[in-house]
Amino acid sequence: GWFRRLLHKPKPSSVESSLNSSCSASSSPSSSSVESSGSSPSTSLAGSIRPSPISVLDINASGSARWTKSYDVCICHSEVDLELVEELVSYLEGQPESFRCFLQLRDATPGSAVVTELCDAVQSSHCWVMLITPGFLRDPWCKYQMHQALAEAPMANGRTIPVVKDVDRKDYPRELRNLYYIYMAVKEKSFKQIRDTVVR
């Protein structure tokens, strides 16, 4: 079904066209903002996020596609990273857009099956932030949720947002190596990059 939807995908709007043309017209990223490994296309978004052409009013409008799903962002993380994730959720929910975030320990229904909750969270969210840390790589539920997100949007379309912290390039999940990622060095700057990416 996803391949059929890809073939019948509508032409991009003028906003998307102008965004794509500005991206293609720009020169290649500087070496300071690119993490390279062989021929892998994955690069860091550090310092490369442009201001979104979409205004807050467009996102919050009652007719906006935003309201077709229960959540704007599903945060996939390991339990050992909960403190950092709670800070990120607090930041996103406190923005002018008042992002609706799914945080498993807070928003999952008590008594529901873990698998059901993870799948519902992925399907009910517009995009998914994957906080890839050593704890994420060790947690089978994180990998399961990552695969669910990739199955939901095989061509990504910007919906899967990998955020890398304290992980060597060689350990980065192979399934995500075709996606650009945000490297979390300075927390506040990374939070802003995540926010700008979700808006886009």
From TrEMBL:
Ranges where the record places region Disordered: 1-47
InterPro entries: TIR_dom, Tol-interleuk_rcpt_adapt_Tirap, Toll_tir_struct_dom_sf
GO CC annotation terms, alphabetical: cytoplasm; plasma membrane
Any GO molecular function: Toll-like receptor 2 binding
Biased composition (Low complexity): 13-47
Pfam family, any one: TIR_2
TIR domain ranges (all copies): 69-198
Biological processes annotated in GO: positive regulation of canonical NF-kappaB signal transduction; positive regulation of chemokine (C-X-C motif) ligand 2 production; positive regulation of tumor necrosis factor production; toll-like receptor 4 signaling pathway
Name this protein carries in UniProt: TIRAP protein
Organism of derivation: Phaetusa simplex (large-billed tern)
The encoding gene: Tirap
